Fold these 4 entries.
Entry 1:
Amino acid sequence: MRSSVFLSAEGEGFVPPSSNDFELPPIFGDNPFTTKPIFLVFLSVILVSVFFILSSRKAAIVPSKFQFAGESIYAFVRNDLARDVIGHEFMRFVPYLFTLFTFILTNNIFGIVPFLQFPTMSRVSFPYVLAITVYLVFHYVGIRKQGAWKYFKEIMFMPGVPKAAYILITPLELLTFLLVRPLTLSLRLFANMFAGHLLLLVFILGGEHLLQGVIGLKLISPFAFFIGIVLTFFEFMVQCLQAYIFTLLAALYIAGALADEH
Amino acid sequence: MEGTLNLVGFGLAAIGPGIATGLIFAAYINGVARQPEARSVLQPIAFLGFALAEALALFGLVLAFVL
Amino acid sequence: MATRDDNAAWSIIGYLLSGLLFWGGVGWGLDKWLGTTFLLLTGLILGAGSGIYLVWLRFGRE
């Protein structure tokens, strides 16, 4: 799988990176539960917990730099995401949104951390699970708040529409609400991480391959590496942005389920 | 290299809606910047134009898979 | 308010996509069942039309 890329440097012609590069072999024997993404998920859980436990344990009025870093991330999620979007009931959802944001952010940034260098969310099952949790949370909240019948009636039957148009529209509302929303939520995160990692692979491995070539190609390869480095910074921006967008949309869905009229 | 011509066709078909979306939001931002109180008037128009342009892109996407 | 606008753009894409998928899917299924070929295109156009109509209802009315 990965070997195809490394073999290419030995004069077989360049094999461009493909989706096969994302299917990493198990680390211990044949156990499919010990692949790199799984270790990265556990690592991210440990990192996030240790960071926030340490930064909040010795909380002082005059914060240390460490405490300040932890608190500013928390304040960002609480004020800019939860409070501005959800409104007066926001405090209930802050723990969930905060977990979501830090977890996705850490896992995304693994994509450009040396030696880890694999964004966990580029395996599609992880975003799926996250989107399923969002899905369960916002439907549960909406049904608890408004009652099942009223909740679905407001989705399905919009006021002020001719009766005949409901035949056209109601299936679309239901499909959007029940299927397309969580699907686009997870696929957006997945596609961004997948494409970003592939882009970096193309430039870094392509530059490496050019370095093995004749002298003319050797001269070009620094440009490939340079673009690879620039794109790494670009990737960092995309990774932060995607974590933010995922959390923002989760908050917006919760806010929509809580709102009386939608 | 593998793939189908459908995907090339979709890539070409996505150029138009891409430019259109850019133009629509450029005009919207321009309008709101010049006259902030016109925002509520411009916003539905901008989103409708966006929807019309985006429908063409999604048409291309669906047809690329179907045909 | 900027966040609401972001959500509007995404949900517009969602509505249009589900319109095309649902009514295109209905047309495709009817094509398979009846052995015709024109219903898929009809369904796609109907889906795009109703998707745009729904976007107009949600975002264009006020």
Entry 2:
Amino acid sequence: MDAPVIQVREFRKVYRGFVAVDGISFDVHRGEVFGLLGPNGAGKTTTLESLEGLRRPDGGTLRIAGVDPTRAGRRLSALIGVQLQASALPDSFRVGEAMRFFCAYHGIAPRMDLIDRVGLGDRSAAQYHELSGGQQRRLALALAVAHDPAVLILDEPTSGLDVASRAMLHELIRELQAAGTTVLLATHDMAEASELATRVAILLRGAIAATGTPLELTAAGEGLTRVSVRTERDSLGRPGTVFPFVSRSSRLGDYTVYFSTDVGPTVSAVIAYLAVQSDPLVDLRVERPSLEDRFLEITTEGATR
Amino acid sequence: MRAFALHLGFEFRIGIRNKTLMLMNYLFPLGCYVLFGSLLGQVNPGFLAIIVPAMSVFAIMSGALLGMPDTLVSARNAGIFRSYKINGVPALSLLVIPVLTSMMHALVVALVIAATAPALFGGESPRNWAGFLLVFAAAAFALAGAGALIGVVSANTRMTVLLSQLVFIPSMILGGLMLPVSILPDTLARVSRILPTGYAMDAFAGLAMGQDAVGAWLSLAILLAAGAIAFGLAALLFGWDPKNTTRRAHPAWAVLALIPYAAGLVLYSV
């Protein structure tokens, strides 16, 4: 395998005695989309900002394409493109000016095509403060990829975006990945991580609680399939109804929810039971375990420890 | 170099588009010029002999002390500097460019004042234009350097207002802009020696307005030294990010910017 493009070794960051990140290590290879997941305060943004050279690690080493972010200066800005979680431009900067400004500092011709690509073509004369939050984030993305960076770092990129903008962003990420760009993505959106990430790491209280592909992580959990059933006379709610391979059940509104280790026999038994009870089935849903379920499992376990 | 020139051009335009900067760079100094020219010219005819340098210094102070520091603090605290850093904008550009644009805006206002004061109020024009521009550049450098330093060391905009007013108000009253320093009591005249405006007015008097002024070149040198020290300290203490508390030196080092003025106080007392 190629040498990792992003290398994090025993990285540690402490803020006035509070350990924000506690010795984490991971590698990201060329063309991978690596998702950093975790609840608020888990250390995702601290990790990203240290890789971006905005913060100095208190321990361990960080490398981007062999370059130390704390010492690289302008070499780093040529290597990485960043969409920060909290960033801004001067209020009276126009969209087109912002593109010309940053491209000039990267020493490249302005990429006005990207302004169109992120759907801001008709807003290129608008000042930054006249853009909506979603438009500002799209502009930040266009500026981040303008110089074709080897590594793209995205911190909550779809936060505040509408459905169409989100789809556009996902398409752009896939294109960049196909062209060999390495993407480091911090997100709260599990569907986004499942859809885009080749590998993910779940951060919890500054440590990596789990890492692997979304499928590996999901398979490593309890693996319980959720079977939600609603009937006309609610006969499933009666005490004493037990079905095969159900490890636990609960009520959610009008639905009885079964968590099954083998969904086929469970569903067959439920339908047979309803036939005997002459209780017509109104709705039955089967949901395979998701990354979100696994995430909740891990973070809940971590919180109760 | 192309990026720097483009940045300078954008920043200059922002100084006109941004309402606060427009107010501080143009509307406030020009409004005060009309007001002071009309009122003070009637009450104190001697003011008309210094209206051009006095209101030019006022214009520099308005942009450099009341406009620029607030913009620097707001940009840093809003995350604008972070965006700049990750895109390779050098820290020095973030200080040099506001200083230069502040000087450019003040120069536009000073030229308007110099061109209109004789006709509007019977004010005296500079007799030596090269001297006027030289002293203007030195005074603008000293005050813009101080403004940059205030912007860098202030944690928030409230602190900026406090520090800016600490220089602006005494400079207005004691700095020779409205009243000659020679009519001030000794103690207050000494206080005026720790303010940049007193030196600026001395240098304008001797090198631009053809008036008798002891030590005009010394005043000019003090302004240049003060500007260089303030700017150097601003570069040393500059921070990209309010959350990142790692810094090269304590903000209290900013008081070293007063050294040239303290030296001037001693030299003028001898």
Entry 3:
Amino acid sequence: MSKRIGMEVAIAAAEAAALCRFDVAAVYPITPQSHVAEHLSDIVADGRIDAEFITVESEHSALSSAIGAAGTGARVVTATSSQGLMYMHEVLPIASAMRLPIVMIIANRAVSGPLNIWNDHTDIMHERDTGWISLFAQNGQEVVDMTIQAFKIGEHRDVMLPVNVNMDGFQLTHMVEPILMPEQEEVDKFLPAYKPYAMVHPDTPVSMGTLAMPEFYAEALKAKDMAMAASRKIIAQVWKDWEKQFGRKYEPIEAHRAEDAEVLMLTMGSMGETAEIAINELRKHGVKAGLLKLKLWRPFPFEELKKLTKNAKVLVVTDRAVSFGGPGGPVCGEVKAALYDEPNRPKIVNYLIGLGGRDLTISDFVDMMKRAAEATKKMPAEAYEYYGVRE
Amino acid sequence: MKALVENFDIFAPRLVDKEEYFCAGHRACQGCGEALAIRQMCKALGKDTVIANATGCMEVISTLYPTTAWKLPWIHVAFPNAAAVGSGVEAGLTALRRKGKIADRYVKTVAIGGDGGTADIGLQALSGAMERGHDMLYVCFDNEAYMNTGIQRSSATPFGASTTTAPAGKASFGNKTWKKNLPEIMVGHNLAYVATACHSYPLDFIEKVKKARKIKGPTYIHCFSVCPTGWRAKSEECIKLGRLAVETGVFPLYEVEKGKYRMTIDPPEKLRPVEDYLKPQGRFRHLTPDQIKIIQDRVILEYKKLQNKIKCSKSWDELAK
Amino acid sequence: MADKKGPETWKEMNPGCMVFRPGSSREYHTGSWRAQKPVWQNEKCIKCGICYIFCPEGCIKEDEEGYFVADLNYCKGCGICAHECWPGAIKMVEED
């Protein structure tokens, strides 16, 4: 039986990775990090699991050595954040192209400049198209659960893709939360030993990371994209297995009072919990409000979104990143693409919120919901708004 | 004729491993010194080896999907990170062997890259990997410019060489900087073994690779690799140019074992003039006698610095006594 | 994990473009690049193996009598063997 404990979420993420009995961890401690790196090294140093910890000299080398280790057939975990993720960027699409199921725990934070170390989703948005499966957690429990699920999803033969688990920097990473920490036997039962597709070893000589000329490159990309598409089914199956064993339900989009909602809000990450309270407040006052919490960023749950928004009049999409000169926030761009062909699609209002750690209260979410109906009258003149920015 | 066989047991080539681990059909240019050096290195390493390759000539010419020239297990990720990938391979093999997930036998991790991938963009990853003490041999195949992308200068390009980004012209004599001394930087990492080598001295190179392979820890070999295409030289003169680099003192062959410097190929008592080495190469053709003199003086100075280290250095074992 | 020569459909591609056939570059014959080919005069050959150790293609092999011969499927005609053969047993001759 899982034990309920109070634990800092970053440390809990490292504990969850250890429950998955990783073979190698390669993490760079700064630029800026969470406590994941140091706690992973604690776990290895204390001999709690039998693994190698590589104290790499950069984030670029963190993922590079993770790829090297995964190439040998090791189960590998790494973690990063913000500038570190940006520095790693070159290697992300290579990890997925090489079809190595590395798990990366990301403490989402703003990107320089100006220099800012607080939370938003700018870092991961730059990595959207690198071919990684992207999960978004809204609380510590989800961070733990998703870290364990990530290995099972990524390692499935129909998938073989790296997975990143996103948790909001500070707002999650540095919070002590009550967490039901699964027991080792439970995780062993859920997550079988990793059977790699290939191993760089003299007994199984393989060339990994070859050059594809134009006549092969497009086929290689389609194969990777189809693996991403195939992962939808596997993710659903893994989440079903999880619910069966641990009783906690996961869906690509978690809906809260959305069924009859006229005004819907969509959030990603920890702000979903604050937004939920705001929705309940609005409901008390008779507003038909509802909430959608996006848990799966890649592959994007197009069908689920269509289903959940078909009765709404207004959809308020919150974004914690900016796409300069683009259609608004990156999440909103995706949502609009998903709903374009729908005959009864809601009006969409896009607020850019919580940038660089800007706090939002419950009343801010209430305010956004109230103003949304008004905003739709003006559209599309103003496609998106920096919420709370001083004019 | 004498110079050709000097320091070289002429029948010794018959003693090397006959297995080809780096196979024909690779797309390297005619007379490629680097491909030859890789072939020789693999013979010294043998089967129980994993290669981590930086992006560069050797990567693109050897593994055009769906084929590979490699018989050794091989992994390539990107340009700047061969040493980091090697670190991961080494850690992976160590963990999996300890946990009984792979055969319980020693497998050597070898990371390789060109001079750009080693001395420039890959220097940080290399320094990190060597400093951390991974059980890994790193071999830099130095052809003194970014040959794969069209002969751009790197920090390993010699003074006076004309490259596409440091071209000789009316107002320029080509590359204005002196070659970075990477082996010395590696010595500064306290490695148990650092060596320079060249494909023109295959037995010396093979010996050094074998020596490095045996050491359980980080080691480094800097292999001077002639690039007839980039140096604008005749392909058949590939071996000769390597030999001239050694005989002129431009690229001395030595090793540093636990801090002790030793010349492994004795150059002629009196170094040949650098002109003998520069002349057959198009990249130096524009140099004036004055400029050649500057190079000559510097080569002699560097050579004396090396001789001084050979004279003065003691091995750590000796010093610990 | 059987590989095919390609071109393959995307479904037939090996995951990650991995190649499981060590040494399969031999399917590609670089011999067509050649303008000149090496010809051995065995009467001058001392069977030292210099040509073998200096061949960038690794395409020079020893025959049953201990003489050396280049596999012309791969020989690119660089001329290193002829240049390095100190007894002068190898000549580069124009391809027909």
Entry 4:
Amino acid sequence: MKEVISTTKGTVVSKTVDMKKDGYRFVTMSCVELDADTVDILYHFDRDLHLKHLRLTIQKKEAVPSVSLVYFAAFLVENEIQDQFGIRFDGLVLDYERTLYLEKEAPDAPYCRISVSRDVKSGED
Amino acid sequence: MARTIIPFGPQHQVFPEPIHLKLVLEDEIVKEVVPALGYVHRGLEMLADVRDFHQMIQICERVCGICSTIHAQCYCQGIEELMGIEIPDRARFLRVIWAEIHRVQSHLLWLGLFADAFGFESLFMQCWKIREKIMDINEATGGNRVNPSINIIGGVKRDMNPDMAQWVLTQLDLVEKEVNHLEKVLLNDYTVKKRTVGKGVLTREKAMELGAVGPTLRGSGVEQDIRQIGYAAYGELAHRPVVGIDGDAYSRNRVRFLETLQAIALVREAVSKLPAGDISVKVKGKPEGEVVTRVEQPRGELMYYIKGNGGKNLDRLRIRTPTFANIPPLLSMLPGIELADVPVIVLSIDPCISCTER
Amino acid sequence: MFDMTPNILRNFFHKSSTRLYPKETRQAFGNARGELYNEIEACIFCRTCARKCPSQCITVDTKEATWQCDPFVCVYCGVCVENCPKKCLHQKNDYRKPVTDKEIIFMKGETKKKKCEGDPQET
């Protein structure tokens, strides 16, 4: 990963708009859990087979502004992150309310290590 | 007429895998589509937490049954980049050979399913009959029919001796001959044209904007193929993406048909240029750092994001499969067409749902 | 209009593409990875196979000298065969025959008298 640009919650949407103006294709987003409270959200873009990434580090409890109004294709992956990591996205064009993959009774964030182990413990008690 | 909502799927005759589409209709015309996923979600990415990074190869292969070798290849490529391993030349060419054999297999499977989607049963049978030869090649060279499991970190597991390579080429000659017999049917037949020409049009601009990949993107006239980066040995082989113009279901059909023949040609070229030498290098250490790696699957661009922490388990493994990227374009193709054409259009993106949900 | 007809006619005069399966079987390919078996006499119960297996279908008990494999979990990838230090694991070229009940392959060997020097460490 060579070209990674750091962003903040305030600038992520405007930077995505810049990407779109420059003719980048939206590849996908990846969510990576860093520790108990923070996650990294990576936005991957491609132009003429050349990748560029945006990195947004946020608290798990914070809501992230959605980029699905800029790139419609982002709605699917943002819903996926909502399901897997329990992070909320503001302004999604199509919000599945965390039911894209999961049932209603599913745990809050199945892809977060810390929350899973906590659930297991409380189950044993 | 009032609006009607028709649930399309998850179990539908034309779908090989379960996906649910909520179709909002006015008369017979589709006005709006809302997809619902989650019928085959397996959480394979999370297995990286409990299996070590060597064992993940077999798990990555099982993300998708149709393009298994290519998944494993992408994963190994990523780990090799993280660990700074240079794989031997022979291994690079062997990876191309197996990947292209897989592409032929996948495209033939799709051509059959596509024919089945508009009720051309004999064409479906014919395509799958030809595909059986490719499965035999997989078993004879790799060991298993569907998941040959030949990629390892640092190269490939099995070698291909000259006799075996010659046998593969003879088998591929037979396949090519039979595929050529189908050219007239797949590209000219009245039934095929009637059901596909002008259906589900995706314009060049829309395809780029919605992030379409693979034959769906190339069918709309964009000359983009991850193989152009030249990963594995593609940089040393003559390869030019097949491009359609119209962006309709017929154009995607044509792209896939021509890619089948191109893949056979690529195998031939790779076998003729196959260098001598080792097939793998010894691997020491553990992956650390993060990497994004991409390969071209039969369905399009496959992206792996791998983050290692220097331990034997990976921190995060993220798989973005081509169908995942092709669902938003599909949603833009459907409005405005008749209900009876929905199966053909959905099939025309080559949906692989268990890939999508992992 | 009749583009498929030549293909259909060709199939008509060609020998059948399918086999009458149980009666007629294709000979297995020499490289195929089929049924897994263990030469239990040579096995030292070092647990390398159990550790390396991606589907974790093998259970080994070193003290009791038992080797178990669940053939319905096994994915026939051949990783255990490659990593076996004694080369006592093998794969046949043929697949397992279908059965009506689930079963587990259970094998009991003899505990080796002298302690095998150093279990192969994980790399």
